[in-house]
Amino acid sequence: MFRFKSCFPEFMAAIFATARALSGTILFGPQRLPRNEALAILREELLRARTGGRPEQVQLLRGTDELRDDANLDGETSLECTVIFAVLEISPEERASYLQQLRLSRWVQFRPERPLMKFKSFSEAARADKELVLTAVQYDVECFFFAHDACKNDEEIVLKVVGINPLCLQAAGSVCKADPKIMLKVIQKSPFCLQYTATAIQNNRDVVLKAVERNARSLQFAGAKCRADREIVLKAAEKDAFCLAFAGAACREDRGLVREAVEKNPRCLEFAGLECRDDREIVSAAVQQDPSSLRFASAERRDDRDIVLGALERCPRSLQYAGTSCKNNRDLVLKAVEKDPGCLQFASAVCKEDSAVVAAAARPAKRRRITKKTPV
Q1: Global pTM?
Q2: 12 contacts: CB under 8 Å, gap ≥ 6
Q3: Cα distance between residue 238 and residue 244, in whole Å
Q4: Which CA distances in Å does 251 have to 16, 236, 240, 270, 317?
Q5: What is the pLDDT of residue 143?
Q6: pLDDT tens-place string over residues 333-356
Q7: Which terminus, N or C, of the chain has the lesser number of Cβ atoms within 10 Å?
Q8: How far apart are CA 157 and CA 142, in angstroms?
């Protein structure tokens, strides 16, 4: 048993709580807690400090009356409570009875009797029983949301639940969400679970790398530290150019990183920083692979004659992404129209009235001759 005492000025919305053993040893605090949530937070912190590994219940008693989490503490200047830890266990007979109730609820057509509703009605000790929880989540995975905190931090239960529905990780315990070994196994099953993990895990390089390998877009759920990691961002951008949009500002302005990303996926230019989209070498590398990436370049580069010429040689219709001065350049427009007369629609008004350009547009487009190979 432990004795708890807290006091704080009545007009404040918080209390100053300290938990002590009967010997006087401080088990919690002193610490300010929100008045309306003080008892719930105290229970959670006291349980977290316990390392027995068995499901336990914390009872706060004032005299002979039990204090629940919703107890009214308004007007209290001091509060003395006795803290009792009780191990949550059920007998084999009780476990068998609960399991039978779960099995029967699966076959009842009346919806309120589904396994979830039946599990919610079980005692706290039953909802802390590992075997019972494993069976319940197999019948209805939503039962995990109503399991005891000890079960929400159990590796076997969490991995089974995530295998059924990854979204249920959000109900897992804080200890489990902060365990790199457990989260690595979870990420292997569903990389998007990264969004429900602790901040420390979202900044864990090994975990984020594993998530990005499984699904590049999971980078959006990584922490700021990992989104600024050059190797992680490059690996994600190789698989999906859109992922560069989730990278940190420093990575999107990193000329070397953007150059590597563009060489592997020219669409990465769309999400690069302003300076990189204005870099002649980077834009040229992107246009050589995909002429349509010219539209993501800066206004100055879209008016760069050499870059636009390179794009037109590969795809004449990229004239539509060129700048105003290039669309007004007779030689560039003529080159595009000769290959594809439809490009005339992208030229400036001046070029549309040019006799040579109009004549080129009237001629059939130049097409590659495709020779069919006769089977031997």
Answers
A1: 0.63
A2: 35
A3: 9
A4: 45, 12, 16, 14, 32
A5: 92
A6: 888 888 888 888 998 888 888 888
A7: C
A8: 13
- SS3 category, 312: helix
> Domain ranges in the chain?
2-87, 89-171
Residue 229 has a pLDDT of 92
Mean pLDDT over residues 15-22, rounded? 69
For the record, the structure tokens of 272 come out as 């690069």
- Sheet of 2-6: strand order equals 26-34, 14-21, 2-6, 79-87, 56-62, 65-67
Question: 166 phi and psi, to 5 degrees?
Answer: -60, -30
Residue 310 CB-half CA count within 13 A: 19
What is the CB-side half-sphere exposure of residue 20 using CA atoms within 13 A?
13
> Pairing mode, if any, of strands 65-67 and 79-87?
unpaired
Please tell me whether residue 83 adopts helix, strand or coil conformation.
strand
Q: Is the pLDDT of residue 222 over 90?
A: yes
User: Quick one: tokens of 217?
Assistant: 């877009």
Q: What is the pLDDT of residue 352?
A: 86
- Tokens 């088990």 locate to 27
- The one-character DSSP state at 20 is E
Are 216 and 239 a contacting pair, CB within 8 Å?
Answer: yes
